[in-house]
Specification:
The structure is a single chain. The chain has about 425 residues and is an alpha/beta fold. About 45% of the residues lie in helices and about 15% in strands. The chain is built from 19 helices and 14 strands. Strands 3-2-1-4-5-6-7 form a 7-stranded parallel β-sheet, sandwiched between helices. The protein has a 7-stranded parallel β-sheet with strand order 10-11-9-8-12-13-14, with helices on both faces. The longest helix is centred in the first third of the chain and has 22 residues.
Length: about 425
Amino acid sequence: MWKVIYNLLTLCALPVFIVIGLANAKMRKNFRERLFPRVKGKPATGSCMIHGASIGEAVIAEGMADYLAKNGGPADFLFTANTSYAQEMLERKEGAREGRRVAALPFDLSFSVRRFLDHHKPSVIIIVETEIWPNLIWEARRRAIPVAIVNGRISDSTLATYRRLSVFMRSALAAVDTVVAQSAEHRRRFISIGMSPERVFTTGNIKYYRPVPEDIPGREARDRTIVIGSVKEKELAEVYRAVKLLKSDLPDHRIFIAPRELHLAAAIEEEFSKTFRTARYSRMKEGKGDDGADIVIVDTVGDLLGIYARSMAAFVGGSLAPYGGQNMLEPLFVGTPVLFGPHTENFHDIAASILERKAGFLVETADDIHRTVMRLLADNDLYDSVQRAGYAIIADQKHVMDETARIIKGLAGPRNRRTD
């Protein structure tokens, strides 16, 4: 009965949803593909499908696929994403690799989901973090395709929403084979919205995991670069002030500013072009930018990790204003000391661990950013200590990916599909 009600509600809302989707520039880019999935080209039959809603989850999906392929898991993968930015990044990085395909996840409409699964026929579906799409899960169950949610988390706001929709959530979660939660608290939340306790496991947060390359440059080998990454609109004023303070004391250092939303690049460029030489990173990649620029605006997707690897220090945004934070582990993956603001609700455990182990710094104002960066650059012993602490956090988490991969590999193959 709940499936019928859910589908009637989604169909009734479809005309309004189409108008919103076509009016929204970001949604419009892959709207048609999500409504009517492509069925041309070679399908990903038998592949392990890994879904990451946006860029952060897509990066986790890539790392998980690489780990599984190297450690006795599936060899072929179908990556899906919601946002066009994440889809484009995956197509650029994964689309040409052997045994890897990329597609937009269909909207959770019964005809869209069926069209998608009829074409691709994955052997298992892995959802990174938490997106509970009832039709996708119900249809996978009907086709005996195992479904797992990995790195599962439910935020405070999402928990309230799921509880309001508990009748649909319980029906959908009944068809999920396994949830691998980030923490005991998130495990408790999944159980509270209807997941059977015996099918919810806790391994830890695989955002902590990333293979550390052997050739990461040390402090002396890095560029004279500071990065202000994942910046959001409400914190721009404080970021502008921090950059100007840093440039006044570090005139020979270049500052890269990466907005979380690319449409902010124009406003950032306008602010700094009055005083400094600025360049767009997209043009620099093409060899057309100003290599002598003081300020570089990162207006591309998927390049930030490489920029972090060259920098002396990095501030991770979405944290000076109440946005909940962004992944402050990314600089640590490449040995770069990290700074972040107080608003890290979405990354509470990660932020607490970084601060407890002295692998990064909490800052609340432009002055804090300025003082902390200057202190880091002036004290080699402090810099080396912070860098080592960051590596230790990443290295300690290999067992989290080991255990998560073990659970996923246990789902592979139709013989492991639940029949209850």
